[in-house]
Amino acid sequence: MSFTNVPDVCTINVRAALSAMEEAQMVTLKQLEALHWIAQLGTFERAATKLNTTQSSISKRILELEASTRLALFDRNQRGARLTEQGEQLLSLGRDMLDIQQRIFELRDAEQPPSRRLRLGVTEMCALSWLPRLVSAIHDKYPTVNLKPEVGMSRNLYDRLLEDTIDIIVIPEAFSDPEITSVRIAEVSNFWTARPGMIKTRRPIDLQKLAEYTILTQGSRSGSTLLINKWLRANGIAFQRTLSCDSLTAVIGLVTAGIGVSYLPQQCFHPLVNESKLAIVPVKPALPPIPYATMYRNDRPSVFTAAISDLVRSVCDFSFQGRESN
Fold first, then answer.
1. Banded pLDDT at 102 (limits 50, 70, 90)
2. CA 261 to CA 242: how far, in whole Å?
3. Range of the structural domain that residue 216 is part of
């Protein structure tokens, strides 16, 4: 006799039993809802009336909840529906879950999206050029967003992103990590500048000649500084006389005062050249462009942050003209 086509009854029964056990171990929102209204109204009967069901159905939900949690939720030695200490603790957690359910329903029924927080970090150069335009664009497109912009050094902002204390940053693309999405939005050209009359030449000088002057830079936590220093090392240049300052605005002040030579974003600070407050120093080879990117974490919901990244790309303009058009 062949048993090839005979069902494995034992296997089917075991699977059914396991499925029943898994279902019995689940804590449902209906069970927590019953627990909440019993505690709120004082009796199983009133809870049943509130939930438009029968008292026996409410009793069944509580028994299932006690079986799933293996907790005695009510003191059977007392008259009335009096919770045990463990029952009160479970009730507190259950109310949190019911509150989340209610917020989900409100999200479904809301005419406009609920308020959400956006922690945005940008460098000083972004703040000096296109940040006001971005703030206006975000408020126009997402009027309920609670925007918290911050201005800081690239390395500090990137560390904050890794620590998950900021949502999206816009910095030079000097860092990378598998957990971080980086979307390039622009490339920024830099030029060497000095106080007018400090370097009297119209012909391009080389980097070795430039090394005779004090070089003013932002600090080592600046993304632009990291990228340009890497390029200088590749060209065999190590400036001996340098002065670093974290503030880009302070660096500009030092240059205009004749303290030294610095590289500055061409679009952003060309108006100072037109006003004869800065002079362009022709140097060969030319500085490489600095790539800027929006960055956000991969392990967080990214639809909203990706939309903000697209918005940044649409408004970023690293020039005074872009700022003044706002």
1. confident
2. 9
3. 190-288
